[in-house]
Design brief:
Layout lengths: L1 H28 L1 E7 L5 E11 L2 E6 L3 H4 L8 E5 L3 E5 L5 E9 L2 E6 L3 E7 H14 L1 E7 L4 E11 L5 E5 L5 H6 L1 E7 L2 E6 L4 E6 L5 E4 L6 E5 L1
Antiparallel strand pairs: 1-2, 1-8, 2-3, 3-4, 4-5, 5-6, 6-7, 7-8, 9-10, 9-16, 10-11, 11-12, 12-13, 13-14, 14-15, 15-16
């Protein structure tokens, strides 16, 4: 009996905190967001509003959303489901896509047969877009001692649904030439390079405004702007 009372008390004590979490998430979501593919080649601005309707909360999609992301034509309202799910819904309340927070202010959702979509604060997304624009151009891959072993060009030419074309210049070191990266994208703070065989190299920005291949190694590979 005492155990049952203790469990009941714990559940009651936890309930307001759980409800508060959902309420806080709802409050935090009010405003403008960017809905996009992972590499942001297709984007849509969504304004989440606090006004209620019988099926959920009001939202507004910019006019070109359905052209960029066809599934958005079915979205009419939004809601919080459970404690941490941001759901975009049809006019009748059916789910179109569910998002959960994967990083502070960045939400990820999956549509079966289509892939992963990102929902993030509009201002942060535009800052990322500026960062991506700054990546376009010629780069060198150098060793830790500063010796350049390859030059390449990052472009904004689309190469499939999520990636962009990458071109190696002649006379690259065999390490890079054998990897033969052909595509790239920015994802969650990393620069990813992809080979035709599906191999991936990961680079992370360091404190010196350069990109280091991860996991780090004794003789690192560093990507520098030319």
């Amino acid at each position: 009996m005492q155990l049952a009372l203790a469990l009941a008390s714990a559940m009651l004590a936890g309930a307001p905190a759980l409800a508060q979490d959902a309420a806080q998430l709802k409050k935090n979501m009010i405003g403008q967001w960017e809905l996009s593919t992972t590499e942001r080649s297709k984007t849509c601005v969504v304004t989440l509003k606090p006004d209620t309707t019988p099926q959920g909360l009001k939202l507004e999609l910019e006019p070109d959303c359905a052209k960029a992301l066809p599934f958005t034509k079915d979205i009419a309202v939004w809601n919080i489901k459970g404690l941490d799910i941001v759901r975009l819904q049809t006019p009748t309340g059916e789910p179109v896509i569910d998002f959960t927070e994967v990083e502070s202010g960045i939400f990820e959702g999956i549509r079966s047969g289509e892939g992963v979509y990102i929902l993030q604060n509009l201002a942060a997304a535009r800052s990322l877009a500026k960062s991506m624009d700054q990546m376009i151009g010629d780069w060198s891959i150098v060793r830790g001692n500063g010796r350049a072993i390859c030059s390449l060009t990052l472009t904004n030419n689309e190469a499939g649904p999520d990636n962009f074309q990458l071109f190696l210049k002649p006379r690259c070191d065999p390490l890079v030439a054998n990897f033969k990266p052909m595509q790239w994208r920015l994802e969650r703070g990393e620069l990813l390079m992809f080979s035709a065989s599906g191999e991936t190299w990961h680079f992370e920005a360091d404190d010196n405004a350069q990109w280091r291949r991860m996991p780090d190694m004794a003789d690192p590979l560093i990507l520098l702007r030319q």
